[in-house]
Amino acid sequence: MNGHKLLYWDKVVNVGNGWEVQETPNGADPLPKTTNGMKILDFGKNSCCFATPGEMCMKEQVVDLMGQGFTAEDLDKQPIIKISEWFASHADFIGDYLLEATLLNEKKENMKSFLFKDDFSDKQLGKWHQVIHIFSNYGTGVRYVKFSHAGQSQLNFPGHLGTKMSGGVVSLQPLIKKKNKFKYH
Description:
Galactose-bd-like_sf, Jelly Rolls, F-box_only, ubiquitin protein ligase activity, F-box-assoc_dom
Protein backbone atom coordinates (compact mmCIF):
# COMPACT_ATOMS: atom_id res chain seq x y z
CA MET A 1 0.00 0.00 0.00
CA ASN A 2 2.99 2.36 -0.16
CA GLY A 3 2.75 3.05 3.58
CA HIS A 4 5.54 5.63 3.40
CA LYS A 5 3.24 7.90 1.38
CA LEU A 6 0.70 7.74 4.22
CA LEU A 7 3.40 8.55 6.80
CA TYR A 8 1.93 11.82 8.13
CA TRP A 9 -1.69 10.72 8.09
CA ASP A 10 -3.81 9.18 10.82
CA LYS A 11 -6.19 6.69 9.25
CA VAL A 12 -9.37 7.36 11.20
CA VAL A 13 -11.52 4.99 9.13
CA ASN A 14 -9.74 2.39 7.02
CA VAL A 15 -12.23 -0.31 6.02
CA GLY A 16 -12.75 -2.58 3.03
CA ASN A 17 -9.67 -2.45 0.81
CA GLY A 18 -8.52 0.63 2.74
CA TRP A 19 -6.52 3.53 1.38
CA GLU A 20 -4.24 3.10 -1.61
CA VAL A 21 -1.61 5.39 -3.05
CA GLN A 22 -1.79 5.19 -6.84
CA GLU A 23 1.34 6.30 -8.67
CA THR A 24 -0.94 7.61 -11.42
CA PRO A 25 -4.73 7.87 -11.01
CA ASN A 26 -6.35 4.56 -11.95
CA GLY A 27 -9.71 5.15 -13.65
CA ALA A 28 -9.46 8.95 -13.67
CA ASP A 29 -7.66 11.57 -15.73
CA PRO A 30 -4.01 12.32 -14.91
CA LEU A 31 -3.54 15.18 -12.43
CA PRO A 32 -4.16 18.50 -14.18
CA LYS A 33 -1.16 20.67 -15.08
CA THR A 34 -3.07 23.93 -15.64
CA THR A 35 -6.40 25.47 -14.76
CA ASN A 36 -7.76 28.57 -16.47
CA GLY A 37 -4.38 28.98 -18.18
CA MET A 38 -2.48 29.04 -14.88
CA LYS A 39 0.12 26.42 -13.94
CA ILE A 40 -0.96 24.30 -10.94
CA LEU A 41 1.75 24.07 -8.28
CA ASP A 42 -0.23 22.03 -5.71
CA PHE A 43 1.17 18.67 -6.82
CA GLY A 44 4.87 19.53 -6.87
CA LYS A 45 6.54 16.79 -8.92
CA ASN A 46 3.97 14.18 -7.85
CA SER A 47 1.66 12.36 -10.22
CA CYS A 48 0.14 10.15 -7.52
CA CYS A 49 -3.13 10.31 -5.64
CA PHE A 50 -4.90 8.67 -2.72
CA ALA A 51 -7.69 6.29 -3.75
CA THR A 52 -10.59 4.97 -1.67
CA PRO A 53 -12.55 1.72 -1.93
CA GLY A 54 -16.30 1.13 -2.00
CA GLU A 55 -16.58 1.76 1.72
CA MET A 56 -16.07 5.15 3.37
CA CYS A 57 -12.45 5.69 4.39
CA MET A 58 -11.24 8.81 6.23
CA LYS A 59 -7.84 10.09 7.22
CA GLU A 60 -6.61 13.26 8.86
CA GLN A 61 -3.49 15.25 9.53
CA VAL A 62 -2.98 17.89 12.21
CA VAL A 63 -0.62 20.67 11.14
CA ASP A 64 1.25 22.33 14.03
CA LEU A 65 1.57 25.90 12.78
CA MET A 66 4.15 26.89 15.39
CA GLY A 67 6.09 23.74 14.53
CA GLN A 68 6.15 25.08 10.96
CA GLY A 69 7.93 28.25 12.10
CA PHE A 70 5.08 30.65 12.87
CA THR A 71 5.05 32.45 16.22
CA ALA A 72 2.03 33.02 18.45
CA GLU A 73 2.31 36.71 17.53
CA ASP A 74 2.24 35.86 13.79
CA LEU A 75 -0.82 33.64 14.22
CA ASP A 76 -2.70 36.08 16.46
CA LYS A 77 -2.56 38.63 13.61
CA GLN A 78 -5.07 36.25 11.96
CA PRO A 79 -3.38 35.65 8.62
CA ILE A 80 -5.55 34.28 5.84
CA ILE A 81 -5.54 30.46 6.07
CA LYS A 82 -6.26 28.81 2.73
CA ILE A 83 -7.26 25.16 2.46
CA SER A 84 -7.48 23.41 -0.90
CA GLU A 85 -7.49 19.95 -2.43
CA TRP A 86 -8.14 18.29 -5.78
CA PHE A 87 -10.59 15.38 -6.01
CA ALA A 88 -12.02 13.09 -8.70
CA SER A 89 -14.32 10.12 -8.96
CA HIS A 90 -13.47 6.96 -10.85
CA ALA A 91 -14.57 7.40 -14.48
CA ASP A 92 -17.02 4.48 -14.22
CA PHE A 93 -18.30 4.85 -10.65
CA ILE A 94 -19.99 7.74 -8.89
CA GLY A 95 -18.49 8.43 -5.49
CA ASP A 96 -18.69 10.53 -2.36
CA TYR A 97 -16.05 13.04 -1.24
CA LEU A 98 -15.70 14.94 2.02
CA LEU A 99 -13.18 17.55 3.16
CA GLU A 100 -13.22 19.06 6.63
CA ALA A 101 -10.74 21.67 7.83
CA THR A 102 -10.75 22.77 11.46
CA LEU A 103 -8.81 25.55 13.12
CA LEU A 104 -7.70 24.49 16.61
CA ASN A 105 -6.36 26.41 19.59
CA GLU A 106 -3.41 25.46 21.83
CA LYS A 107 -5.57 22.84 23.63
CA LYS A 108 -6.65 21.51 20.21
CA GLU A 109 -10.19 22.76 20.73
CA ASN A 110 -12.29 23.69 17.70
CA MET A 111 -12.29 27.42 16.91
CA LYS A 112 -13.74 27.38 13.40
CA SER A 113 -14.40 24.71 10.80
CA PHE A 114 -15.34 24.20 7.18
CA LEU A 115 -17.09 21.13 5.76
CA PHE A 116 -17.41 20.33 2.05
CA LYS A 117 -19.26 17.30 0.65
CA ASP A 118 -19.75 16.25 -2.95
CA ASP A 119 -21.50 13.24 -4.49
CA PHE A 120 -20.43 14.03 -8.09
CA SER A 121 -24.09 14.30 -9.16
CA ASP A 122 -23.31 17.51 -11.06
CA LYS A 123 -19.75 16.71 -12.17
CA GLN A 124 -18.17 14.81 -15.03
CA LEU A 125 -16.85 11.50 -13.72
CA GLY A 126 -13.11 10.86 -13.85
CA LYS A 127 -12.28 14.59 -14.06
CA TRP A 128 -10.41 16.52 -11.37
CA HIS A 129 -12.13 19.30 -9.39
CA GLN A 130 -10.75 21.63 -6.76
CA VAL A 131 -12.25 22.73 -3.47
CA ILE A 132 -10.87 25.91 -1.87
CA HIS A 133 -11.80 27.54 1.41
CA ILE A 134 -10.42 30.72 2.97
CA PHE A 135 -10.48 31.26 6.75
CA SER A 136 -10.31 34.89 7.90
CA ASN A 137 -11.39 36.87 10.97
CA TYR A 138 -11.33 33.70 13.07
CA GLY A 139 -10.04 35.25 16.30
CA THR A 140 -6.78 34.88 18.17
CA GLY A 141 -5.39 31.63 19.45
CA VAL A 142 -5.20 29.38 16.38
CA ARG A 143 -2.20 27.05 16.67
CA TYR A 144 -3.17 23.99 14.60
CA VAL A 145 -5.11 23.11 11.45
CA LYS A 146 -6.76 19.69 11.24
CA PHE A 147 -7.19 18.58 7.62
CA SER A 148 -9.50 15.57 7.16
CA HIS A 149 -10.74 13.99 3.97
CA ALA A 150 -12.81 10.94 3.11
CA GLY A 151 -14.27 9.16 0.15
CA GLN A 152 -15.86 6.05 -1.26
CA SER A 153 -17.50 4.60 -4.33
CA GLN A 154 -21.28 4.54 -4.06
CA LEU A 155 -21.13 0.90 -5.21
CA ASN A 156 -19.37 -1.44 -2.85
CA PHE A 157 -17.20 -3.30 -5.38
CA PRO A 158 -13.77 -4.62 -4.40
CA GLY A 159 -10.75 -2.55 -5.35
CA HIS A 160 -10.11 1.17 -5.24
CA LEU A 161 -12.95 2.48 -7.38
CA GLY A 162 -13.91 5.30 -5.03
CA THR A 163 -12.93 8.92 -4.77
CA LYS A 164 -9.38 10.03 -5.48
CA MET A 165 -7.66 13.02 -3.91
CA SER A 166 -4.36 14.82 -4.35
CA GLY A 167 -2.65 18.15 -3.84
CA GLY A 168 -4.07 18.95 -0.40
CA VAL A 169 -2.65 22.31 0.74
CA VAL A 170 -2.78 24.37 3.93
CA SER A 171 -1.21 27.80 3.39
CA LEU A 172 -1.02 31.03 5.37
CA GLN A 173 -0.94 34.47 3.82
CA PRO A 174 0.30 36.95 6.44
CA LEU A 175 -1.04 40.45 6.71
CA ILE A 176 1.70 42.95 5.82
CA LYS A 177 1.47 46.55 7.00
CA LYS A 178 2.52 49.04 4.30
CA LYS A 179 2.18 52.81 4.64
CA ASN A 180 -0.48 52.55 7.35
CA LYS A 181 -2.57 50.16 5.26
CA PHE A 182 -2.87 46.44 5.61
CA LYS A 183 -2.51 44.28 2.56
CA TYR A 184 -2.62 40.53 2.20
CA HIS A 185 0.62 39.12 0.82
